[in-house]
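Q&A log
Question type: sequence-to-structure
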Amino acid sequence: MAEKQFPGNMYAMQFPQNCAASTEGPVCENTNEKTFPWMNYNSTVATHMSGIGKPPQFPITSKNIPNSHEPNMINKRSHHQTPHLPQPSLPPIAPNEASMDKPFQCDLCPRQFARRETLISHRRTHTGEKPFVCDVCSKQFARRDTLQSHYRTHSGDKPFRCDLCGEQFARRDTLQSHRRIHTGEKPFQCDVCQRQFAQRDALQCHKRTHTGERPFQCDVCVERFARRDTLLCHKRTHTGEKPYGCDMCPKRFSQRDTLLCHKRRHTGERPFCCDICDKRFSQRDTLLCHKRTHTGEKPFNCDVCNERFARRDTLQCHKRTHTGEKPYECNVCSKQFSQRDTLQCHKRTHTGEKPFHCDVCNENFARRDTLKCHQRRHTGERPFQCDVCAERFARRDTLCSHRRTHTCEKPFRCDYCIQQFARRDTLQTHTRTHTGEKPYQCLICAKQFARTDEFARHRRTHANSTSAIATSTQQTSVSMTATAQPSLPRSQPHSTAVTFMQNNFIRAPNCDNTPKRYTPVSNYLWQTVYI
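Response status: OK
Response body:
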């Protein structure tokens, strides 16, 4: 047997010695068969050799086959041979005569390739073969270069550097995608809506918005997703994993972009700017929601009452008004709420925390919206206007209550009787006629009342009696002490000295409820606590 080498440097075929080679190709002297063309020698020689009873042999050597693409080769980095996976029954690779630029065509799909080793790598996308194994985490790959890129996730090596901003990357294609951020290039276009993208995978994910395809399924709750990274983030809701930690505080997050948004709270960075009012935001979705205040767009529609909203989370909270769902529970009193921020505000009633501060009068508040309403007392702003009578109000709920005077709507109904009311506070006052509750108590005579107007009318009875006492003390200019207290109506003895000043003003020097400024007697006596 004499070894005959053929052009292509891919296979070394063995022929009988009575087979010779000419300048055009191998010619068999036994059968005098015509010369085999070079471009299709693989299949033609195989047919010829099987006809004379000698099957073709293909001894593969490292000199003939590139070791960077063939499977089952020695992994130089791991120093062990990759596992031999079962090979599917595929026909031999035959060049395609139709295209001289890409002569190698896949027999399982119409794709053509210019190099044989590229075709071999492509075939693994059909067979699922992954012969290259990472010796660190045992993850398998179909291509050697993909394995090399994967190794950098363990070593942290980032050899590819952007020449514009200096950022480094572990993969060359990631660097190419990053450069498009600087150039603004978007080479990938959707053939449905003509929208352009800078990355191919972004285009593929976008196309699923047209097709509705969701190929990635959660193996825990069977929910499906259009993106692989969305599925990975979703799985962390089941496992509770939070791999991203803040280096400024102990908080951890399950998503990288959530961590980036959180860090801006520490740095105060607001990179997203509105091009209409120049207001800046720390999150992109917050900017998008803000822009809808200029455009009036409300893309989220309730499928129950057809009410529309500018934000998705506002729609979700609104739907709970139909379902009655209250998923947020207080861990102190077990009271449940339909919104997370309402629960947070409620917790401050237990802790007494008031984090929102007015910079005009230094008053503190437990809720941000309460602070905003309070600040309008200083500015006189009334941003809410009635579209019927043009009357303006400082609070939105006051405007809503006012509108019912035009529509005669009474949405608040008593649980004890069939009576209905236009205002919630009016309903609460009415409910006390059924329950007998009297939350307003006079601090002078301890009498209780169910309504504020009745309580105010009662206070005037004390104001009239104290008026004469204050007048007499003004004429005599006598300081009254605890041993000689004025004859005032009260339920218990006074424990602190009360000094009557001129012009009907008093001051209690040893009382915690002493006002900051001198207060008229008629206003103060019903407020002071008598022990």
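Response note: The domain at 244-321 is CATH 3.30.160.60 (Double Stranded RNA Binding Domain).
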